[in-house]
Amino acid sequence: MLARLLVLLLLAVPIIEIAVIWLVGRAIGFWPTMLLMLLTSVIGVWLTRREGRQTWQVLQLQLQNRQTPTGVALDGICILFGGFLLVAPGFISDVIGFLLILPFTRTYIKGFVRYFFNKVLINKNIMIIRR
Q: Among 70, 54, 59, 38, which Cα is nearest to 103's?
């Protein structure tokens, strides 16, 4: 079931992204659309670097104090994935990327990710295939 959903998403997301880019292009014009996509990429790179540095500093501090950096590690994963989405062309991926990078929205997303992984681990829906 999860594999089918993943395949469906991999097929549907690019089609939806192209449709949204086309609709925005029709509404504001080709060059403003390209400029807007470039601007979101530049802002995304800047935000990713800023948040990544802060997260790296907190991670180092927690490791020096012999603390388990679970929350900070999840922050780093969100920032990395969000940065990737912001550099990729498309407005939907940009919105998701900003949600992953901005600290006040990342808190909610981290809660959802923790809930999802706890549910999967508790229900033991993970299959390990050994060869």
A: 54
Structure tokens at 131: 């060869």
Residue matched to tokens 């790179």: 45
**H-only helix segments in 29-90:** 30-64, 70-87
Q: Using CA atoms, how far apart are residues 117 and 34, in angstroms rounded to an integer?
A: 37
**pTM score over 0.70:** yes
Here the tokens at position 38 are: 């470039």
Task: Give the integer Cα–Cα distance in Å for 117 and 106.
Answer: 16
The pLDDT tens digits of the residues spanning 30-49 come to 999 999 999 999 999 999 99
The residue ranges of every structural domain in the chain are 38-123
User: Around 54, how many Cα atoms within 13 Å sit in the side-chain half-sphere?
Assistant: 10
